[in-house]
Automatic annotation (TrEMBL):
This is Aminopeptidase. It comes from the Bacteria. It comes from Zestomonas carbonaria. InterPro entries: Aminopept. Pfam families: Aminopep.
Amino acid sequence: MSFLSSTLDRVLSRWVPLLLAGALSGCASLSYYDQLVDGQLDLLRRSEPVEAILADESRDPELRRRLALAQEARTFASAELGLPDNRSYRIYAELDRPYVVWNLFATPELSLTPLTHCFPIAGCVAYRGYYSQSGARGAAALLQQDGWDTYVAGIEAYSTLGWFDDPLLSSMLRWDDERLAALIFHELAHQRLYVADDTAFSESFASFVEREGARQWRAARGLPPADGRAERMREQFTALILASRERLQALYASDLDDAAKRAGKAAEFERLRTEYRQLRDTEWQGDRRYDAWINAPLNNARLLPFGLYEQWLSAFAALYRQAGDWATFYARAATLGKLPPAERERALRALQGENPALPETVNP
C-alpha cells in the first residue's frame, strides 16, 4: 500500500465519525465540516515523506537544507523535550498559498465577548478555520451584515492534536531556521497536552514549551542566547493591546447609550494608534514591524487573539522551575489541566506568585 493511500485510509476512518458527530450535535454546519475534511485531505494528497525529498538530489537545495534542519529539530523535540515521537513533521506538503488556513474571529459591535464555535475533540474556541481565504471572507461578510465585528487572520500551521500526521508546510518555511524549530515544538506541545474549552491554558502551555525548547535547542547547537529584542517588542505591543481591551471592556459595561459607546470605541482605537507610534518612534527607534497591523481598520474582533498565547507564560515558567525536568513538568501541567476551570485559574495565579502549594502528580 502506498504512503498516500494508507494515510488517506486513516484519515477517512477518523474524519467520517467526527463529521457525523458534528452534524448530529449541531455544533457546526455540515457544509463547514465538508470544507474541513476536503482541506485536510488536500494536505495529505500533497504530502510526501521528508526522507524521500532529502534523498532526491534533483530537488531544490534550499528546500532540502530547511527540511534537514526541521528533521534535526523534530528529533530533538522527542529526544530532549519529551514531545510525542510520531510521523508528524516528518512529511512535507507544498501549498499554493501563503497560509494553510484562515481563522475567522467575530464579536458584537459593542462587546469583546467572542462568537464561539464547538467541535468534537477540540472543544469550544473563539474562531472558525477555513482552508480558503475566500471562504473565511465570505463567512465574515455574512456576519458583518448582522452587525458583527470580524477579523480574518492567516495561519501558517496548526495541530490536529495527534489525530493525524501533521505535515511540515511550505507556509512554515517562511520563517527563519530558529522560528521554524520553535513552531515544531509549539505544535507538538499541543499533541502532548491540550485542554478543551481553555484556549489560554493550551496556548500558553504550548508557547512556554516553544520558548524553553528553542532556548535549549540553541544551547545544544552551541549557539549564544537569542537576542530578546523581538520578543520584548512583541510583549510591549501585546501589553498595549490588552490595556486598550480593558478600557473598551469598561466602556461597554458602562451606562452610556450606544451612540456614546460607539464614539468612545472610535476614540479608544485612535488612542491605541497614538500610543503605538510613541512606543515605535522612541523606545523601538522607528522599527515599523507592527505598522501594517495598527494601520488596518480596527475593531473588537482584531483584539481577540492577543493575550491568549501569553496569559499564563509566567505560570508555566514557574511550574518548570519547580519541576526541574520535562517529564515532571508535563505531569504537573496535566494535573492542572484536569482541575475544574475556576480551580485551575486559581492554581495558575498561585504559580505566577511562585506558590509551591500545587498539585504534584497526575492520575494516569
